[in-house]
Design a protein that fits this description.
Layout (H helix, E strand, L loop, with lengths): L2 H10 L4 E6 L4 H16 L5 E6 L4 H6 L7 E6 L2 E7 L4 H12 L10 H20 L4 H15 L4 H13 L6
Parallel strand pairs: 1-2
Antiparallel strand pairs: 1-3, 3-4
Length: 173
């Protein structure tokens, strides 16, 4: 399918669309298949799911800027709302569909394990920075890593990042 035909089909579709670029040999794609089926059923009549085989439509894959699979792109009123590369949990797939339906960018929450894997090294680096001097570069690095463990819960970050996304949003052709 050519990009122009894809965009025409997208503009004519009355509902929001989630496009999944996948391949039959892709392990994460196979893992996500039941999650996508469940989301498609749950959002039936509200959000459409288009599955595009990356091996069969390589021209479209290149023109859409897809660099890895699985890639999910959400469109609302023909405009790209959200893009996610890589495997997602069932909860995140449902969250992606919900975000596309609401015309909002998708932002996944970190699991408690992911938070812990960021929090502990951040504390170690902060303590090392404090006890060695203080070393302000190490303390700043620890602060950045610590913030990466909680950024998705920070209201100021949410407001500022939404404003930046709006400033740099692609306009429809």
């Amino acid at each position: 399918m050519k990009q122009s035909a894809f965009e025409f089909k997208l503009r004519k579709n009355p509902r929001p669309v989630v496009v999944e670029f996948w391949a039959p040999w892709c392990g994460p794609c196979k893992m996500m298949a039941p999650y996508l089926k469940k989301a498609e059923q749950e959002f039936s009549g509200k959000v459409d799911l288009w599955r595009i085989n990356a091996d069969e439509d390589s021209e479209l894959v290149r023109s859409m800027g897809v660099r890895g699979i699985p890639t999910m792109i959400g469109y609302n009123k023909g405009i790209e709302v959200s893009r996610k590369i890589g495997a997602m949990t069932a909860e995140n797939v449902l969250g992606f569909f919900s975000a596309v339906e609401e015309n909002k960018p998708f932002s996944r929450s970190l699991s408690w394990v992911e938070r812990l894997m960021r929090f502990i090294p951040a504390l170690v680096i902060l303590v090392l920075g404090w006890t060695n001097g203080p070393n302000y570069w190490l303390m700043a690095l620890g602060g950045v890593i610590l913030f990466s463990a909680i950024y998705d819960r920070c209201p100021i970050y949410k407001v500022v990042s939404a404003q930046f996304r709006e400033m740099f949003k692609k306009k429809p052709a």
